[in-house]
Amino acid sequence: METALAKSPVSPRVEPLGKREQTKVQNRELILEAARQVFAELGFGATTVRDIIRATPLASGTFYNYFKSKEEVYQAIRDDVALAIRPRLREERVKAKSVEEFISSTFRTFMEFVADDQVNFRTIRHTADTTRVRLDTPEVIAGFEELREDIEKAIKEGVFPPVDADFLMASIVGVAFEVSDRMMLREKRDPSAAAIFATALFLGGIRTLPHASHPSSGAGTA
Amino acid sequence: METALAKSPVSPRVEPLGKREQTKVQNRELILEAARQVFAELGFGATTVRDIIRATPLASGTFYNYFKSKEEVYQAIRDDVALAIRPRLREERVKAKSVEEFISSTFRTFMEFVADDQVNFRTIRHTADTTRVRLDTPEVIAGFEELREDIEKAIKEGVFPPVDADFLMASIVGVAFEVSDRMMLREKRDPSAAAIFATALFLGGIRTLPHASHPSSGAGTA
DNA sequence: AGCGATTGGTGACACCACGTCAATTTCGAC
DNA sequence: GTCGAAATTGACGTGGTGTCACCAATCGCT
Questions:
Q1: CATH fold of A72-208, please?
Q2: In chain B, which residue's Cα lies nearest the Cα of A162?
Q3: Distance CA B9, CA B7 (A)
Q4: Are B165 and B102 spatial neighbours (Cβ–Cβ below 8 Å)?
Q5: Residues of chain A positioned with their CB less than 8 A from the CB of B138
Q6: A221 CB near a chain B CB, below 8 Å?
Q7: For domain B18-67, which CATH number applies: 1.10.287.3510, 1.10.10.60, 3.10.100.10, 2.60.40.1120?
Q8: Domain ranges of chain B
Q9: Shortest Cα distance from B162 to chain A (angstroms)?
Q10: A163: which chain B residues are within 8 Å (Cβ-Cβ)?
């Protein structure tokens, strides 16, 4: 009995793991953090596994103990984001008692999340190249399927009209991604305005969209 | 005068170019065609310049006389598509006399084009990987900007309500890409149904969408 | 036609990234 | 403290990258 306590007399319980497990978690995070930086700087295409490991105190072989390729690292980064936002979105949707709530809470939650998440946005939007890359990982795709299932459930319960759930899911995804992307390119990020725009579009179509304050609120191409 | 005619007595005027220019055009097309096949088979990420050149009778060095990298080849392929569809879309939009025409002709033209264009679709949607890649080339982005300008013009002329043209452009693009993608994954491709869905969404919102014939018309995940 | 000049194809080469693996270090259990 | 397991290391073979000196084909001119 005494030994067990003596072994960790003052140790905070935040480290209940052995040294082994600790460095394992640490190394993984080291690689992910380095990858975020390098992806943001060079872009996904130009980045090599060597670039990532060089931004780390680890040896090249160690990389392959944690990931199979740079694709898998990228996937892990995106999956982290997806895992963070999926439960929030789902929670909002199950609470929704009407089409209005379903749509507006979905867009509001999504836009606010994206606006807060500068790090991952910069990881994905590499400014170097003019070309834009979008990679949908399994976890992200699972989020899409979840949305479709919720729409189908809402239709069965009579909350939604009996529309094509697959196309509606695709439309919500498309608008959420594209509009959030434009939102992030603006000087002043306004997730509320973006969410209101998308919500109005889905609930009433173009004619119910809010009127823009300035004629060319597009704020240029930059 | 006589010499000029004598130089090509029977030659069809389809080859007014010298031999030099001819093989140049031919080699470029050879590379592009090989690239389309290889991209479709291996996916963009796994494809190497060597894979492309190997699917060709040319030597490796020759590739670099035509393109700097596989990215540039991919860009050329996408730009061909963009150059083919942009004038058609623009023509439809300038003809439009109302919001209804603007939106419906845009989606109809786009969906029909995508449905007809199996080759380029398979080039981009490599079934091998679960992850999906979307690369927007400068030409494609120019098409987006063109759409936004047309929206702004329509607003100035009073055809459109004074909405946020940038967000509206992004929404149209997002829905067009995502819905067309789902359309192409279905057993029976129906560009008309896809266009009607997208049009109804933009003109009147969810509640005016056509009712789906089957409850789960999503046709699974495949 | 014949003949230099020029353009463009060729493939070997130096460089580097990839993924592996045997040797070595580090940790955990007894 | 000692032994076995687990993880790290970096050198290595393989193969892709982009370049360049060389050479063949075409062009312009007489």
A1: Tetracycline Repressor; domain 2 (1.10.357)
A2: B211
A3: 6
A4: no
A5: 130-131
A6: yes
A7: 1.10.10.60
A8: 18-67, 71-208
A9: 5
A10: 197, 206, 209-212
Closest CA to B89 of B172, B208, B14: B172
- Lowest mean pLDDT: which of A9-18, A106-115, B102-111? A9-18
Q: CA-CA distance, B78 to A209, in Å (whole number)? A: 32
pLDDT in tens, A61-88: 999 999 999 999 999 999 999 999 999 9
Residue B167, number of CB atoms within 10 A of its CB = 26
Helix, strand or coil for residue A136? strand
Task: Categorize the per-residue pLDDT at A127 as very low, low, confident or very high, splitting at 50, 70 and 90.
Answer: low
Kindly determine whether the C-beta of residue B142 is less than 7 Å away from any atom of nucleic acid strand C: no
Q: Which residues of A touch B141 (CB under 8 A)?
A: 130, 132
Give the model's pLDDT for residue B213: 65
Chain D, protein-covered positions (CB within 7 A): 6-11, 15-21, 25-28
Burial class (CB in 10 A: 0-12, 13-18, 19+), B90: middle
* Reported CATH class of domain B71-208: mainly alpha
The confidence score (pLDDT) of residue A9 equals 44
Separation CA B221–CA A144 (nearest Å): 10
- Which pair of structure tokens corresponds to residue B12? 């069809």
Q: Which of residues 35-64 of B touch strand C (CB under 7 A)?
A: 57-62
**Token digits for B185?**
């994954």
Give per-residue pLDDT as tens, A163-201: 999 999 999 999 999 999 999 999 999 999 999 999 999
Distance CA A163, CA A148 (A): 11
> Which of A100-114, A136-150, B14-28 comes out lowest in average pLDDT?
B14-28
The string over A18-38, giving b where at least 16 C-beta atoms fall within 10 Å of a residue's C-beta and e elsewhere, is: eeeeeeeeebeebbbebbbeb
Confidence of residue A11 (pLDDT cuts 50, 70, 90): very low
Backbone φ/ψ region at A135: left (φ over 0), alpha (ψ -120 to 50), beta: beta
In the block, residue with structure tokens 């793991």? A17
Question: Cβ of A114: how many Cβ atoms within 10 Å?
Answer: 23
**CB within 8 Å of chain A, chain B residues 180-199:** 181-182, 193-194, 197-198
Chain B: closest CA distance from residue A115 (Å): 16
